Amino acid sequence: MTAAEFRVNPYESFHRLRRISPIIRSYANQGWMVTGYEQAQDVPRDSRFNNDIHWNWFFLTILRVGMGGKPIPFVDHPTLLSFDPPDHTRLRKLLSPGFVNSYIQSLAPRIEQLTDDLLEGSGDSFDLIQTIAKPLPALVIAGMLGVPVRDRALFQTWSDDLTGATILGRPDLLRKASDAETAMRSYLTNLLESKKGDQDFISILLDAHEAGDRLTHEELLGTCVLLLSAGHETTTRLIGNGLYSLLTHPEQMQLLRDVPTLLDSAVE
Ligand code: HEM
Fold first, then answer.
1. Closest atom of ligand 1 to CA, residue 223
2. What's the pLDDT score for residue 152?
3. Domain 69-267: which CATH class?
4. pLDDT digit string (tens) for 94-133?
5. Predicted model pTM
6. Which of 31, 114, 167, 194 holds its CA 20 to 30 A away from the CA of 44?
7. 258 CA distance to ligand 1 centroid (A)?
8. What b-and-e string marks burial along 63-75, b requiring 16 or more CB atoms within 10 Å of the CB?
9. Could you state, in order of their start, the residue ranges of all structural domains in the chain?
């Protein structure tokens, strides 16, 4: 199977791996590949595993060679994605107000309004990805973080480029991701200087940084880069793949129309 075929349908490979074992040692990166549902829940809670790639000198060396001197995105400037406890626990606690249900629910009216605005004038037939799935997450995240909406195109492009950091067989994309990370850090450094006294999410983190030892400057920047980039492509694809699944399973679409209270589990 080629990489392109895998991207179109990864599930066959996942099934095959799961049949061999739900957890497999990968010799390509000296890490673990977890495809079992229970194991995927257990491994992150098991302190015998760690998240910090700096322990994996083999993988780190391969990445370093591919980068040609540029910083390895999400590694040389670490984020929550590569922290282990106790640092992960401390940072996660600082972010938790942004992810509690009551706060997310309070965003709902604005998200509905934004969706209506984006749909206005689109008629019966429109491109879901360009009309809704791409702009909506960017607008919502900009609002949450207090990033000027007029800069949306900038951070959307950086976020798309940063996603290239997950395609490990393409050093050119890794280097592009590194450039995007550098640009984003410099944009956020300027933004942080203008934020004193604001009430948004980045300002809350900034206060924690200024209050003392709870958040270093490096952690503050890394967390802002992660927050500004993590929700774009993920949510765009959730919307696209979610609707695609419903269109290819019309009986489920009908069920959802008949029983709208199923919406929560449909989104899950
Ligand atoms: C459907 C949409 C989303 C999906 C499928 C998704 C998926 C994921 C996954 C798989 C991870 C774990 C990555 C790892 O540890 O290797 C993760 C972590 C994270 N995501 Fe998302 N994400 C989505 C939306 C968002 C949004 C909207 C935000 C913020 C605005 C966000 C912020 C984060 C953060 C901060 C982490 C790190 C959490 C931690 O380590 O404690 N994500 N996401």
1. 35
2. 86
3. mainly alpha
4. 888 888 888 889 999 999 999 999 999 898 899 999 999 9
5. 0.86
6. 167
7. 31
8. beebbeebbbbbb
9. 1-49, 69-267
